[in-house]
Amino acid sequence: QVQLVESGGGMVQPGGSLRLSCVASGITYTYYRMGWYRQAPGKQRELVADLTSGNESDMLDSVKGRFTIWRDDYKNTVYLEMNNVKPEDTAVYYCNARQFYLGSAVYWGQGTQVVVSS
Q1: What is the rounded distance in angstroms from the CA atom of residue 5 to the CA atom of residue 2?
Q2: Alpha-carbon dihedral of residues 60, 2, 29, 111, nearest 10 degrees?
Q3: pLDDT in 10s for each residue of the chain, 118 residues
Q4: CB 50, CB 35: distance < 8 Å
Q5: Which residues neighbour 65 within 8 Å (Cβ) at sequence distance 6 or greater?
Q6: Helix, strand, or coil here: 2?
Q7: What's the CA gap between 35 and 51, in Å, rounded?
Q8: How far apart are CA 13 and CA 8, in angstroms?
Q9: Which positions ≥6 away from 105 have C-beta within 8 Å?
Q10: Which of 66, 97, 96 is nearest to 81 (CA)?
Q11: Which H or E element spans position 38?
Q12: Within 13 Å and on the Cβ side, how many CA atoms surround 24?
């Protein structure tokens, strides 16, 4: 059974920092591109950042220079460090696993809420 378990969401003031974590189980981790998506109220879900084990990555332009993504393949964990957060970063953040080797499976976490507010 595949599970993606997120943690680290919450409320933070503008300009503050937050770190999200996602632990994966039930998959061959290195076969997957791991990443974070977000969905704000009334908006479509969008890719924030993702990363392969070979360090191929994509990142949303509006978070470049503020957010950092990295993964620990020994712990099957992907992280999103969010610095200098803005109110427009408020959203539910979802962990995503997208298989690119020997298959095309896609899995989602349950989501973690991030609220940026003073």
Answers
A1: 10
A2: 20
A3: 999 999 999 999 999 999 999 999 999 999 999 999 999 999 999 999 999 988 889 999 999 999 999 999 999 999 999 999 999 999 999 999 999 999 899 999 999 999 999 9
A4: yes
A5: none
A6: coil
A7: 6
A8: 15
A9: 2, 27, 97, 98, 99
A10: 66
A11: strand 32-39
A12: 28
Rounded to an integer, what distance in angstroms lies between the CA atom of residue 15 and that of residue 50?
23
Question: How far apart are the C-alpha atoms of 23 and 65, rounded to whole Å?
Answer: 24
pLDDT digits (tens, 9 = 90+) for 62-92: 999 999 999 999 999 999 999 999 999 999 9
Euclidean distance between CA atoms 53 and 29, whole angstroms: 9
Joined tokens for residue 2: 């595949």
Residue 115: which of 16, 12, 18, 21 has the closest Cα? 12
Residues 79, 81, 85: CA angle, nearest 5 degrees = 145
Structure tokens belonging to residue 1: 């059974």
Which segments of the chain does DSSP mark as H helices, in order? none
CA dist 101 and 92 (Å) reads 28
- Amino acid at site 118: S
Question: First vs last Cα of the chain: how many Å apart?
Answer: 40
